[in-house]
């Protein structure tokens, strides 16, 4: 009789274990919800940079390319500071656009997550 009672108590994860895994899952879901849009914006930025570099003519100045790029970023509602955008022109070679920027995601209270993105065309 005593042996069967012990076996029944050891089966399953228990209430504390279930609560622990629910909390872990909730934290993961919260992180995905807060960080996911940043990665989506970065993928959109990558597509915009590649398209902008592909359509930039060698006669365009870096300022004109930057102006056109800022217009496209505004339409996509992606906010990037101009000092984070670097346009590299090498004669007749295709234009290369490099963007280095940081995003901060507030998590809980005064705890934040800093994500650095390096995107280039």
Strand arrangement within the widest β-sheet reads 1-2-3
Name the shape in a single word: elongated
Q: Which bin fits the share of residues in helices? A: 40-55%
- Main sheet? 3 strands, antiparallel
Q: What is the typical, i.e. mean, pLDDT?
A: 86
| Residue windows where pLDDT falls under 50 for at least 5 positions | none
Assembly state of the chains shown? single chain
Question: Count the strands?
Answer: 3
Order of helices and strands: HHHEEE
Structural class: alpha+beta
How big a fraction of the residues is strand?
15-25%
Q: Report how far the terminal alpha carbons are from each other.
A: 72 Å
Q: Determine Rg (CA atoms, Å).
A: 25 Å
DSSP summary: helix tally: 3
Transmembrane segments: 12-33
Pfam families: DUF4845 (PF16137)
Organism: Igneacidithiobacillus copahuensis
InterPro entries: DUF4845 (IPR032314)
Quick summary:
The protein is of the alpha+beta class and 121 residues long. The protein has helices at residues 2-10, 14-55, 62-75, and strands at residues 85-88, 96-108, 111-120.
Question: Can you put this structure into words, describing what you see?
Answer:
By secondary structure, the chain is α+β, with helices and mostly antiparallel strands. The protein has a domain at 37-120. It has helices at 2-10, 14-55, 62-75; strands at 85-88, 96-108, 111-120. A three-stranded antiparallel β-sheet has the order 1-2-3. Strand 1 (85-88) and strand 2 (96-108) form a beta hairpin. Helix 2 packs across helix 3 (62-75). It is elongated and about 70 Å long. The N and C termini lie far apart (72 Å).
